[in-house]
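Q: Mind making up any chain with structure tokens?
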Amino acid sequence: MLGNIDLGIAIAYIALILIVGIVVGIGGNKRSTGTAEGYFLAGKTLRWPAIGLALFATNISTVHLVSLAQSGFDTGLLNGNFEWMAAFTLILLALFFVPFYLKSGVATLPDFLERRYDRSSRDWLTFISIISAIVIHIAFSMLAGGIVLKTLFGFNMYMSITAICIITGIYTILGGLRAVVVTESIQTIVLLAGAFIISVAAFHRMGGWMAMKDVLATTGELDRLSMLRGADDSSGMPWYAVFFGYPILGIWYWCADQTIVQRVLGAKDENHGRVGALFCGFLKILPVFIFVLPGLFAYTLFKSGQLDLHSLGVDAAGNVNSKGIYTLMITQLLPSGLIGVLVAALLSGLMSQISGALNSISTMVSYDIFKQRKPEATDKQLIRIGKISAVIAMVFSLCLLPLLDKYESIFNGINDVIAHIAPPITCVFLLGVFWRKASAVSAKMTLWIGSFLGTGVFMINKIFPHSWIGQTPFMMMAFYLFLVCMLIQIILSYLYPVQHSAESELLYWKSPLEPLRGAAWKGMGNYRVLTGILLLIVTMLYVIFK
């Protein structure tokens, strides 16, 4: 159990975020909170730093802090692929998707899908997006946060999470996207600061990089420093699964998921949206070094006898129950006071994830469900419905916690779910943006068939884990499902040819080079220059850590 100083720091931080969120949300001008566009899209006034920080904060939750450290302990740097590969999909978002989203003036991604295809596609994506936001972005984050608070302070997991959710819900529901983005910007800074502190502490205790390599060399495990593994690697995530499977998950998550992309939809203009997405791409380089690497340091500290992990459970063969490795590192490597800062960082991840998801759910319910059935609805009615839906989503997420707690690794649980949701959505967005002949009927059928197929494969995987489906790495399964969806949509597009409207005729690229011809800032702020720099840095990192 931790002391009163650390508890006091954590409580003070929660109070600060609550006050800032309420002041920003309620204290803003009428355009910020009094209109539907102001409430759900921050009046389309967001600049690139806020967009980039908010994208990163919405993505990085307590799940990442806890589970990436666990993965670093279990398999080394391997799961860092989810962070560095994200840079490539954020480039896709910046170059190919942001212009269409902002040019069409949509408030939600289901709205964009209707303009490119039809109403049926919009309705289905709304349903899938709301469910995924509740399960992936809120419930799993709640679970990770509850485990941390229980481990560090001995709090009842469900009571503590309920309290945090109520506090987060207050400023999110009162202030809308503007309050969410401002608080997320603060939370990103706190989260990164906390992650740097634990990384430096682990590095210092280990005695540096070379000391860690010496331990790994002694145990014959230098492959833990490799990001790309062979087909026979026990992790079940070989290099080809990373390069073929991750893009399917990543394009859905970064380019077609309302919870993430909503920050871009509130951009002041196209350049702010593009540069904000690329800024997040640069930030995604950091997690490998400050989230994953500390877990690897913990492993070598354990192997060298400098870290006592018996409180987690160590069997006769020396295998560790690593689920609580991050919280144990906090208590064993940091002094009182700094522990409180780390707790604040963990709470930052939890609150930012929940607030972002609640805001996106309320936006979709208001625009994609309520307004579609009542076109005459006023801004006041839309905002009220959005607030009510956020409360319902939060309560439903709390009810899911006992079920999701059965996953051994929260991070793997999330990606397992995404791998079966993403393929049809990634397919219809990619073909819709890059292929003129992608038709409305094909998109609708691909979403329906692909979603049911993914659900069926997921269930077979759980019921028959030793079958071919159960033994296939989840990222390769995502790739196979994507290929099936592509085949379905291409065939149906020829059987049921597209009939473009004047609007949909503008919502696909005529050539791959067309996106690069858009207006750009001069100098280092040019999105083309930033794209080249980001590609170069990530490619070099993969060469170094291959």
User: Anything to note?
Assistant: The chain has a mean pLDDT of 85. The chain has one domain: 4-544.
